[in-house]
Amino acid sequence: MAGGGFVDAGGLKRAHLYEYKITGYFIFACVVAAMGGSLFGYDLGVSGGVTSMDDFLVEFFPAVYKRKHAHLQETDYCKYDDQILTLFTSSLYFSALITTFGASYVTRTRGRRASIIVGSISFFIGAIVNALAKNVAMLIVGRCFLGGGIGFGNQAVPLYLSEMAPAKIRGAINQLFQLTTCLGILVANFINYGTEKIHPWGWRLSLGLATVPATIMFVGGIFLPETPNSLVEQGKLDEARKVLEKVRGTSQVDAEFADLVDASNAARAIKHPFRNLLQRKNRPQLVIGALGIPAFQQLTGMNSILFYAPVIFQSLGFSSDASLFSSVITNGALVVGALISMALVDKFGRRAFFLEAGFEMICVMIAVAVTLALKFGEGEPIPKGIGIFLVIAICLFVLAYGRSWGPLGWLVPSELFPLETRSAGQSVVVCVNMIFTALIAQCFLGALCHLKYGIFLLFGGLVFIMSAFIFFLLPETKQVPIEEVYLLWQNHWFWKNIVGDEDRGRSQV
Question: Of 16, 169, 355, 372, which sees the most CB atoms within 10 A?
Fold first, then answer.
C-alpha cells in the first residue's frame, strides 16, 4: 500500500496492473471478520431495550421505574433522566476509547487477526458478567469488558476489510462491517421483544446472548488469514505473497505486492506513528479521517436513537410492547439502508451518499421537532396518528443514516491513511468515535429532558454543518486504490496548498 508522502507518485501509479478474482477464500475471510460488527450492533440494540424493561429497572433503578409508571401512557421527556442509568450505556464507550490505544499496538505488531480474537474474548467476558450482575457495580464492570471488545474489534475489522478488498469493490466489502452491525442491532431488538415477556430474568438473557456473536467471532478468527499488508509489515514476505495470491485468486500479483513492500519499507522508517499523524503531509487524513468524520458520525444523533429507541417511544407515550416493536421497525430500516449503500456506493460514490442523505436527515429532524413542538405537551396522551408519523419519520432518518454516515463513517477513514500511520490513525478514529458516542449516550436523556423538541433541531443543525464539511473538504475516493489515495490531496482545491509542495518534493524510498 501507499507510503503516503513518502513514495513518489510515479512509482505508485501501477494500480491498473492489479489483477483479482472473487474467491471463496476471500469471501470467507471477509464475512468472518465482519462479524466484529455484530458485537457492536448487538450491544447498541440490546442496551436501549434492556434499560426500558421493568424487571431491569426494578432491580437496579427503582426510582426510574416509579417515575416511568407515574406517566406510563403520557408524554414526558424526563421519564428516564438518570445519570447512573445512562452510565450503564456510556461506560462501554469510555472503556472502548481507552482500550483502542492498546488495540493499535496489537494490530500493528501482532496483526489485525490478533486484535479480532482479543476483542471477542473481552466481549465474551463482559457478556457473562452483565448477565450475572447483582448490583450496578457489576453492570459497569461488565460494560467495561464489553468496551474492550468494541475497542479491539472496531480498531481491527474496518482495516482488515479494506486491506483484503480489491479497490473496485472496497466500498461494498468494507460495509460488511456496517451490515453486520445493523443485523446485530435488529437481532437484539427481536430478542428484547421476546425476553421482555420473560419475568423476572428476561433482561439477563438479552445481555447474556451477547456471548453468541463473541463466540462466532473467536472461532472464526482462529481460521482467518492475516492481511497481506500486515504480514508485509511484520516482515513475513513469503507468507504475505501466498495469502495475496490466495485472496486474489491469481498468481499475477507482482504490481500489488511491490506496492505493499514499498509501503512497508517506508513505514519502517516511522518510529512514532502517532506523532507522524501530526505532520503536514498527513493533515487531511487527520482532519477528515481521524477527527471530523468519526465525531460527526455520532453528532448526527443516530446512535442516541439506536440506544434509546424504546426509551424515546415510551417517553412519548407508547406502551412497552409498542415501543420495542417500533424500535424493531426502525432498525429494520437501518439494515435496508446498509444494503442500499453496499449495492450502490461504489457506483455513485461516497460524497453523493453523504450529501443526499444529509439533506434528507435535516428535513426529518425539522419535521420531528415541529411536530413535537405543536402537538405534544407534558402529561398529554399521544394521538395515534402522530405516533405513526413519528415512527415513519424516524424510519426515514434511520434509512438515510444507514446508507451514509453509518457505513461511510467507518469506510472512508479506513481508506485515507497510508500504511505507516494506518493503525495509529484507526486508533484515533475509534477513540474519537467512542468519545463522542459516550458523551452523546451520557447526555442525551438529560438533553431530551431539558431541550425537549429542541434536541432534534440541534441534531438537524449539526447535520447541516457536517454536510458542508463533506462538500468542501472530502474528495471522492470511490474505486481509488488505497495506495493512490494520497494523490487526491495533491489535486484538491484546498488540501494541495497544505500537502502539495511537501509531497511533490519527496523521492521514492
Answer: 372
